[in-house]
Amino acid sequence: MSDTPEPTDLQPPPAARLPATQPDAWASLRAFTPARIGLGRSGVSQPTGALLEFSLAHAQARDAVHTALDAASLAVELALAGFEPLHVHSQAADRSHYLRRPDLGRRLDAASHERLHAARPSASARADLVFVLADGLSALAITRHALPVLIAAREQLRDWSIGPVVIAEQSRVALGDEVGELLGAKAVALLVGERPGLSAPDSLGIYLTWSPKVGRTDAERNCISNIRPEGLSYEGAAQTLAGLLHGARRLGGTGVGLKDEQAHARLTGHSAD
Question: What is the distance between the alpha carbons of residues 217 and 211, in angstroms, rounded to a whole number?
Fold first, then answer.
């Protein structure tokens, strides 16, 4: 008679059994941040759910970078909202060139340069402010958030004349300086899709430049970032932009010398007036 146990009796010793997923004691803190904390563990690895969520976020970020901007549909939406859309393109012919040659995304192609030069108004009719909608690294951000931000900003800037809204494909931040210079605007506010992260593939940023012209540096601009429903609200972004613009008008410039007085007031509890 054999002493070999029946198959149903084969069980691994307790030490060899795979441990169940263990929750992390910090998991409750996840309600207060989009950061990946308190994920728990399964043995020495992440739980399957956390790994799948990370893979999805990574795929969404990659898709955001490569998804093209539907400029035609955006132009229709702008016109229906009462804005005057203009369409331009950078010197980056396509997404591949845009990603490999950042310099090409900072300047207009020849046709766009001529189009804006022809659209330049007379000195007496030049706008205080021109908006540029740049696809940047996330056209999804422009598609979802640009128009609500523009509408909120228009309400905050009733004492500013606003020129055409320029839709710029394959564009980087510095392209706004050339647009503003060609249209003769006092200031340019470029709304751009920010670099996607693993918690936000559709974050929108605003870069503000006073007296825009080719060659302006990042030190001469102000930035408002993380504009989206889960971050800085549309109304909050519009209020911050209006505050910076009024400050730029008084100072005669933007950049390191211009501070967000509203943010300082929120931090210190003092009035910004």
Answer: 12
pLDDT digits (tens, 9 = 90+) for 94-131: 999 999 999 999 999 999 999 999 999 888 789 999 99
Spatial distance between the Cα atoms of 100 and 51, rounded to a whole number of angstroms = 30
Q: For the packed helices 175-183 and 110-119, what is the interaxial angle rounded to 10 degrees? A: 30
CA dihedral 159, 160, 161, 165 (to 10 degrees): -130
Whole-number Cα distances in Å, 262 to 57, 77, 238, 272: 33, 31, 12, 6
Tokens of 214: 């080719």
CA distance linking residue 133 with residue 165, whole number of Å: 7
Q: Where are the alpha helices (DSSP H) in 110-158?
A: 110-119, 139-141, 147-156
Report how far residue 42's alpha carbon sits from residue 46's, in angstroms, rounded to the nearest whole number. 6
What are the CA-CA distances from residue 177 to residues 50, 155, 182, 209, 218 (Å)?
43, 24, 9, 7, 11
Two structure tokens written together for 90: 């950078």
pLDDT of residue 16: 53
Give the predicted TM-score (pTM) of the model.
Answer: 0.83
Rg of the chain over CA atoms, in angstroms? 25
Residues paired with residue 88 on neighbouring β-strands, in sequence order: 168
Q: Are 141 and 224 in contact (CB under 8 A)?
A: no
Identity at 46, one-letter amino acid code: Q
Tokens of 225: 């970032």
As a whole number of angstroms, the distance between CA 228 and CA 196 comes to 12
Q: Give the 3-state secondary structure of residue 130.
A: strand
Count CA within 13 A, CB hemisphere, residue 187: 29
